[in-house]
Amino acid sequence: MNVSLWRNRDFMVLWSGRTLSEVGDAVSLLVVPLLAVTVLDASAVEVGVLSATRMVAYLFLSLPAGVWVDRMRKRRVMVACHLARAGLVATVAVGAWTGWVTMAHLWIVALLSSVCTVLYETAHQSFLPAVVPGGQLLDANGKLATTYSVSRIAGYSAGGLVASALGVARTAGIDALAYLVNAVSLLFIRRSEEPPVAARRPDFRRELAAGLSFVFRHPIMPRLVAASASLNLFSQMIFALAVLYLVRDLHLSEQTVGAVMALTTLGGIAGGLLSARLARLVGTARIIWIAPLGLGWTVLLVPAAQPGWGPVAYTVGMAGMGALFAIYNAAAVSYRQGACPPELLGRMTASVRWVIFGVMPVGALAGGLLGSWLGVRPTLWIAAAGVWASGLWLYFSPLRLERDLPDGTPEAAAPPTAQQPARREQVPIDAAGKATGGGRRA
After folding, report:
1. Contact, 367 vs 256, CB < 8 A?
2. Which of 75-84, 95-104, 195-204, 265-274 is the least confident region?
3. What is the pTM for the complete model shown?
């Protein structure tokens, strides 16, 4: 019987450190766009470019990142990425304090930070199964989703208050300390990783192809990838214009912007807390497509918002999207982690993220361009409709005919490599998303 995650010391250390870094990250996500809009008077296009550069590394780095991460100790990669991000964010704080920060500086920092983010997130998703037993992955991912939302509340609230009191130029450095503390906390995880399996003849292209082949020859994952990519594409159009919309269309102050953005994360908290229970109640297969179709319509309240009562509509709409993502991601990520052999986790994760996160800078840039061309509100109408329609990828798929994920998750065999045998026993997943037997989970 698995020990409760609340008594799993290593998971609690991992969870606590990630929570702190997420708080700092939320401060940065609020303050940097505010800095661009209120101090540098950035246009919709410039704000869109800033949001896009923060994620552009997913387009060119995700696939090789999977190969590199599978060859290295995941925890070391995570520590190095946090230290690098701390240094990058510190330059923004110094630049804002001295008054020489520019849009070019913000773009460069965002680009380099995106490289660290890709490596860190690939390592983190591959490291989690080494800390958490397979039967508790759904619960662990639900808790991490909740943490993300709670951290956004704390970060946005603190960022808005500090920016209102001291000015956005003096608030940009909080994130650096959070990254530094998280890097140190990772060193206190006791559970040691198994050393990476070294290939007899390392073949970068073959190793990379093994991850892609596993994902796209799998009977379910291509549909999951398409749905996730659609959700990310259209949601990033909304996120890219959020601060601009709240400040210039709804006429909110900096402090109110922070409060509204903090309240929108309540949906993510509720979704994260209820994700495992809803999956068991509704079905672990059904919940994956019910989440976007059942909650996606609430996002239409965002472009419907008007000055006066607008903050309420905006908050409800964005909270609905937060709940959607928390519930959907907990189920989809747990499915991917359970369906993949341990030696392919890094490459599988990178292959999926290459697609679903690779569209994010495209969505952010499209949001900025369309916002400049059509106007911010019409662009938000398009994006909100796209968020809801993303669920159709899964509704018109084999998942619609199943209540729960099958006991023996089918798996398309990846091409054999020196690191991967031609056949491997699959870890079955039961109706509650728990491992019921099979090979070891790492």
Report:
1. no
2. 195-204
3. 0.62
